[in-house]
Amino acid sequence: MLLGASIVSGLAIGAMYGLLALGYHVTWVVSRSVNFAQGSVMMLGAVLAFSLTVGFGWPMPAALPVALAGCAAFGVVLERVAVRPFRVRGSDSWLMATVAAGMLLENAALFLFGKEPRGMPSSLAAEPLTVFGVGVLPLQIVILVAGVGLALIFVAVTRGTPYGKALLAVVQNPRAAQLMGIDAARVTVFAYALSSALAGLAGILIAPLYSVSADMGFVFGIKGFAAAILGGLENPWGVVLAGLLLGLAEALTTAFAGSAATVMASFGLVILALYLRPHGLFGRAGVRKV
Amino acid sequence: MSRAWHAPAGAFLLALVAGALAFRLDNYQAFVLGEVGITAIIGIGLNVLIGLSGQMSIGHVAFQAVGAYAVALVTSAFPGLFWPALVLGTLLAAVIGGLLALPAVRLSGPYLAMITIAAAFVIEHAIIAWKELTGGASGIANVAEMPLPWPYQGGASAQALAAVILGIASALFAAYAWFRASPTGLALVAVRGSETAAASIGLDPVRLKCLAFAISAGLAGLAGGLFAPLAGFISPETFPLSASILYVLAVMMGGAGATLGPLYGALVVVVLPELLAGLAEYRLLFVGGLLLIVLLIAPDGIAGTLERTWRLWRPARARHLSAPPLDLAAFLGHQAAPPPGAPALEAMGLGIAFGGLRAVENLAFAAAARAVTALIGPNGAGKSTALNLLSGFYRADSGSIRLAGSVVGDPAARHLARSGLARGFQTVLLFDALSAAENVLVALHRQGARRPGAAELAVQLLRCVGFEGDPTAPAAGLAQRERRQVEIARALALRPRVLLLDEPAAGLTVAERTPLGTLIRSIAAAGVAVVLVEHDLKLVMGLSDHVVVLDQGRVIAQGSPEAVRANPTVRAAYLGTAATSAAARHPAVATGAETMLNVVGLSAGYGGASVVRDVSFEVRAGEMLAILGANGAGKSTLLSAIVGLKRPQTGVVELAGATLSGLSAAAIAARGLVLVPEGRQVFPELSVLDNLRLGAFARRAWPEGAELEAVFERFPRLRERARQRAGLLSGGEQQMLAIARGLLARPRVLLLDEPSLGLAPQVAERLFADLAQLAAEGLTMVLVDQMASLALAVADRGIVLENGRIVRAGQAAALAADSALASAYLGGAAPGSAALVL
User: Fold this and answer.
1) Do B333-578 and B595-672+747-755+779-838 fold alike per CATH?
2) Domain limits of chain A?
3) What is the pLDDT of residue B338?
4) With contacts defined as CB-CB under 8 Å, which chain B residues touch A28?
5) DSSP secondary structure string, B212-242?
6) CA-CA to B264 of 20 to 30 Å: which in B79, B174, B317, B809?
């Protein structure tokens, strides 16, 4: 019973990590940079959806696209202000710049939205269904389907369509990509918008299970990043799978060893995995010719 | 080195001022001042990590916690043992940091950041979970007071504590300045600059990076140990992850690498929010915004900005240090002849394959001391690969290397460097953050040279290789010739028995090549076995004692320059066969054809300087134009400017009457003006097939079946490798792929930049026949190629560039017949004029 419930909640939260990790993956494969404000963008998604539905009384189907568009817009601005200026110079400072942008967003939310966490009502999280004797919230299924489904779509698009290949070409040789008529700058902006929308979606999906607050994103963002690293960053399958794995490991540790051990176990796992496989569980070193 | 007293004196002054200040403050102010000191100490550690070794940690607060808990736990049991506890905490943090670094240093960027974050979480939660020892979440309240190192009534007040902390911080600032200039500090900066070059002088990047990590973790532990008595109470909440970020911010804001950077950073991060009392709550908002602004407008931080402002007042004077001339032979100490019969370096059957392609096969030759041995061969023959094998940068699949008669057990680059083998790189690899003299000094330290003498020796070595500039100038700003000289001096500093040089004349003017030749002879004369890869055959033939000729990875001939020059196999490899010039020329284009590409008054270049000046020409539909000129004449820059990769300074490009001004390279490609760029411009991680298909992306098509089949007909090698990753192809195959990809764009005008580079002669001939065929089919082309006579054989017209200007234009046949033109502009690279080549 406990095992079943743990697996269900672990997979749901793991799928959410997977969504965040997919967001890190998207910008990494296109631009070799990631958005360390991803956790804050996730919070933005949840806060926007909460404000629109609870504050303004919008129905969720209307609030969802608007909230996601808001996150994507933030991604576009962030790329312009905190990523592109540094990549143009060949500097790694985008790392700290996106951290700074995340701090700004989080503090802005603190002032505008307030400190107290608020519960997000959702019909999907009200009544648990019973599947094989285990209580499952419909929302948990939705999260799992969204996480795995988006990963599937992403793999299908990048592996099977011209636009997907063009996306992958940009980071491998930006100069040659331009000569193929691929606008590298626009592709990078698109990746940041997409990545932020994925984070926003993760925030909106998870909100009813936790609560909405200005600082909800920080730890989620880091765990999503852990999943991305664990999965090898390069591999869309890998990052989602690693997210699920991380979620499961957490839920099972919590169930059987207590919540105090959870963080130690999950991050210990990350360190151990990187000791053994420096490019992640599902990653591989690129072609290297000196 | 005359400024050696600056740092300790400055530190003493700083400590004095801070101490005096501390006793004038109230308790709270003193506490804040103590926090500045603590942040500065962590900052100094992070400065070693970020500023010197170029790594990043977002988890240092964990090491601070380790130090704090060590002190709190020991002193709560044994109040008298504060100082031993402080040492314990520092060491403990350093050990944990060093261990953590073991996997982390193999990683970079986001992976490294992740490890540090994960470690911080694990340590934080371990403290919470281990209640019996640490008090869990409720922390430790009875931290003993710090026993002061001087008699003071009434115990350690906040003021006294702040003074002690700032005193320690001041000493650490001086220690940092000393460390930065020490052999280890220089080595750290060197590793950050180029791990490849660092390995070539025998440095061990992993060990050095671990050391930097351990030092920075240790200092964070020390800061934590000092923090415990200052705060009097510690708990896991005292050390939130956000504090880690704050520390990194402090270092970057202050100016990473600058000695006093962490002080400025600590003042901004700790004091400024306190001064703006109303804003204390907005501290993170404030710091986040400030950091973003600093990163954007002053990447070198407050220290860098201060320095630049100061330089406006007092510009740095170029220093022309003089040094007595160096007796190179005496310095190298190779007077004792090597054992008779054993050459300095022997390659014994070396071979390596990349993705199934044998790049070098059964390479065997010997290089004697006091002699120059040259490796030559056409482009793509495997010369650079051979050099990388000999210097341990590639691991051979077969064969072995002998140095002075004994087989090298572990031929890794840094072991070879320690056994007396030094090398230079094709694209000079210097440690750009170090000065010219420091570049040499890092290598000298590998030889155990004592510090005072070493600095002068470095300058002497620089003068010895003909470097006349300022030895204290940063390497990043040196001219190509000077960079080459510094690299050779750095290699010589290792006192090598064998020196490998990869195209040392590349990028040098003709006038600069003669002194280079003289230098190489003098190095050999001093007892070194010099092995040279070089394209300039005139230089090679005049310089070498022994010449080894490679073609397609194999040695096809070796011997004296005269013998090699007369060898028919060698001539065939370089010149190709007579079939070359038979490439058919298609019928002349009717003069009435419309103008496809029109270039008017185009100038382009780098920064303010123009590489291409006021170039105008037109290409009519169906015509093929050859652009000729020596290396560096501006051909590639001209093509880049035409297709929009480089924004022209002046001038207009028109395609079929429509201007392309202001369009991006992507938009220009989509309009049908397609460039096949020089070199290996493929997408290495995508399959050959996907590379080809992306060629058609400009017209938003995704070719299948028949269209790809046509390409494979033309380039059968690509069919065999269709499913392989493009990065695994040989240079020549990648070149074919790039051309095939260009054709799939169905261009209105196709520009080809050096398409024959890296192709074997037969393949190059086949390619030119294909180009002639394409021209006959009516494709409009612009061709830039070193093989000028081949290019003129297939082109309708030609233009000749010199120093970025058109100096000749005319019908291809007329240009080809002009022998004076050939010798003046086509130099040694013109096939068909054997006398010039060999």
Assistant:
1) yes
2) 2-276
3) 54
4) 110
5) HHHHHHHHHHHHHHHHHHHHS-B-GGGS-HH
6) B317
User: Distance (Å, rounded) from C-alpha B198 to C-alpha B425?
Assistant: 12
**Residues 6+ away with beta carbon under 8 Å from B663:** B644, B671
B residues 596-635 near A, CB within 8 Å?
none
pLDDT at B339: 53
Instruction: Identify the three-state secondary structure at position B818.
Output: coil
The lowest-confidence range among A233-242, B316-325, B808-817 is B316-325
Instruction: Write out pLDDT tens, residues B571-612.
Output: 766 654 434 444 445 555 556 678 899 999 999 877 666 778
CA atoms within 13 A on the CB side of B100: 33
Q: What is the ipTM, given to two decimal places? A: 0.86
Contact list in A for residue B114 (CB cut-off 8 A) is 225-226, 229, 270, 274
What is the DSSP secondary structure assignment for residue B130, as one 8-state letter?
-
| Nearest chain A Cα distance for residue B637, angstroms | 14
CA distance A182 to chain B (A): 5
Q: Of the CATH numbers 1.10.3470, 1.10.3730, 1.20.144, 1.10.10, which one belongs to the domain with range B27-313?
A: 1.10.3470
DSSP output for B498-551: EEEEESTTTT--HHHHHHHHHHHHHHHHTT-EEEEE-S-HHHHHHH-SEEEEEE
CATH of domain B333-578: 3.40.50.300
d(CA B746, CA B672): 7
Q: Which fold has domain B595-672+747-755+779-838?
A: Rossmann fold (3.40.50)
Check: CB of residue B686 under 8 Å from CB of residue B726: yes
CATH topology of domain A2-276: ABC transporter involved in vitamin B12 uptake, BtuC (1.10.3470)
Q: Where are the domains of chain B?
A: 27-313, 333-578, 595-672+747-755+779-838
**B688 to A201, B521, B666: CA distances (angstroms):** 36, 45, 21
Helices A38-50 & A184-206, crossing angle to 10 degrees? Answer: 60
Interchain contact, A287 vs B684, CB within 8 Å: yes
Segment A194-237, tens digit of pLDDT: 999 999 999 999 888 888 888 888 889 999 999 998 888 888 88
Q: Give the residue ranges of DSSP H helices in B576-702.
A: 635-642, 665-670, 688-694
To the nearest whole Å, the CA of A56 is away from the closest chain B CA by 28
Q: Do A183 and B667 touch (CB under 8 A)?
A: yes
- Give the count of Cβ contacts less than 8 A between chain A and B: 201
**To the nearest whole angstrom, how far is the Cα of B494 from the nearest Cα of chain A?**
23
Report the chain A residue with the minimal C-alpha distance to residue B684.
A172
